[in-house]
Amino acid sequence: MPLQCESSSIDDYLSETEDVDVSHLTIIEKARELRSGAANETEFVQKAYAFVRDHISHSWDIQSQRITRRASEVLYFKEGICYAKSNLLCALLRSQGVPAGFCYQRLTVGDTPDTGLCLHALNAVYLSEHDRWIRLDARGNKAGVQAEFSLGEEKLAFPIREAYGEKDFLTIYKAPNAKTLHVLKHHDNCMTMYLHGLPSEL
Q1: Hey, where are the domains in the chain?
Q2: Which PANTHER family does the record cross-reference, listed alphabetically (predicted)?
Q3: CATH annotation of 4-196
Q4: Strands 117-127 and 132-136, bridge-based pairing
Q5: Alpha carbon distances (Å) from 12 to 27, 58, 91, 100
Q6: 148-173 b/e (C-beta count within 10 Å ≥ 16 → b)
């Protein structure tokens, strides 16, 4: 099944929100820095993706209690869960005029079904040089997780295991999911939120 855009207007995938704070000075500066060393738009997208994936820590991996939400906040603290990291990648891309959106998967919290299910966030980006959308997962690589930038077959962080109740949602949303933002706003301990507070449905 192909990806489907929530909105038919490309401008919706360039807009600013409270959490995708495209016009924040630090976002603009970092995006310009990444763009300056890129030969073209596609290379810029690849560099921005690698920066968020490799240089912004996933909160669970570093066992941090801090919760970040706004893109500029994620950039400042250099950490966040997938919801936060997807906000940052989206903001960096949009600040340079590259349309980007949000995609979701329903995955097990841990490695087995008994750990429960949760929403996982990733991004989709429109590459004008290739006239197509591709999905990118900047969650952060570790043992057993190897997501990559790819113009061919998707190389996302997690395979979908339907037998576990996991699901891949193929809609490209113009804004972060309201439920994911709600949990980031209403928890004060990231480890507790991650284990017990993540939504399981869109």
Answers
A1: 4-196
A2: BLR5614 PROTEIN-RELATED, CONSERVED INTEGRAL MEMBRANE PROTEIN
A3: 3.10.620.30
A4: antiparallel
A5: 19, 27, 13, 9
A6: bbeeeeeebbbeeeeebebbbbeebb
Q: Report the percentage of the chain scoring pLDDT > 90.
A: 96
30-55 tens-digit pLDDT: 999 999 989 999 999 999 999 999 99
Give the per-residue SS3 of 114-152.
HHCEEEEEEEEEEECCCCEEEEECCCCCECCECCCCCCC
Helical (H) or strand (E) element with 107: strand 100-108
Q: pTM score > 0.85 for this model? A: yes
Give the Cβ contact number of residue 200 at 10 Å: 14
Q: What's the rounded Cα separation, in Å, for the pair 65 and 190?
A: 4
